[in-house]
Write a structure and sequence with these properties.
The protein is an alpha/beta fold and about 375 residues long. It has helices at about 65-80, 85-95, 105-120, 125-130, 155-165, 180-195, 215-225, 240-250, 265-275, 290-300, and strands spanning about 5-20, 30-50, 55-60, 140-145, 170-175, 200-205, 230, 255-260, 280-285, 305-310, 345, 370.
Amino acid sequence: MSLVEKVEIIQFNEDEPDYLRTFDSEDRAGSWYYSPGSVGRRGHLMVRVHTADGLTGEYAYHATAGAAALQAVDVARVLVGRDWQHRERLFRTARRMARPMHNYGLSFVDNALWDLAGKAYGASLAELLGGWRDRVPAYASTVNGDRAGSLSSSEQVVEFFGQLQQAGWRGFKMHSWHEGDKWEEARNVTRMREVLGERAELMLDPACVFDSLSDAIFVGKACQEAAFRWYEDPLRPIGVGVHQHRQLRDALDIPILQTEHVPGPEAKADFLLAGGTDLLRVDAHYDLGVTGSLTTIKFAQSLGVKSRCTAPAPSTATSSPRCRAPRCTRSPTSPRTTRTPRRTSTPAATPTTGRASARTARCRSPPVTGWA
């Protein structure tokens, strides 16, 4: 038995050159938007789990909700003094403890525990889970198109994807413009197929920009006619309503991919069984860590349903049995600091979270996720 001696909860900021979180337009309020010459500040959260025998498991990524750090601290309080290998026990306790909220903070702690397991056994996460492939296909995914010179038109979109295609990429996913113009979106879908060719794997993720079901169906039919691989999250507000997505699915003959914003295995299972989606989106960063993601993936496998995985780049503990995406080199664990991050450890009974600033190496390669 190896007990957890302490857990560190670290908050820091990362510079995002040429991007700002903008609030000047209702269409894109709260989104990261291309702003040449600006430097945005994105909040991150790191969890480090230290054991009594000297091992350390780590996980760090951006934290989109302020509650994540507080939830992670509560999870850490439960973990300290217990066997780090009892992940399922922690999963059971922490989920109920967070009610009525989804325990986003558990994802950080659980991923750190899987990182710890890999270090303890000298194995990658894929090896721990019985994985056998060392290569999987990947697709290049964009940020949302904007009007400031970064993917501002269909011509820029196909030019960008064409450059990646020449570099060897075979799959491409576009995130829509924030305005949700169905005509512009449909034209771009058609243009992508015309330029990139019939063998390219193409996907569209409008990122919840369409107010009406009819607009979403209109663009979905364009994707269907262009033989896109899937159509993902088209409807406002955040893609969590089963009824409207069942109507969307019934109207189209193209796989629908939902549940990126439907948190937790049970809710994803209900969404699928109620007919709201053909494929499941799962993410170890949002869906209760590797442990929670595995629950969803295994359920989907039993029904012959594919789970499409997104994998946070900075961590070694966020792949899944279906997703071993290439990782960008970006390490918040050894940042070029402008000020040393303050840490919060949790052997004490009443930890408090600290805030600090740090800058890390920027990731320049295109974001990637894998499919099986």
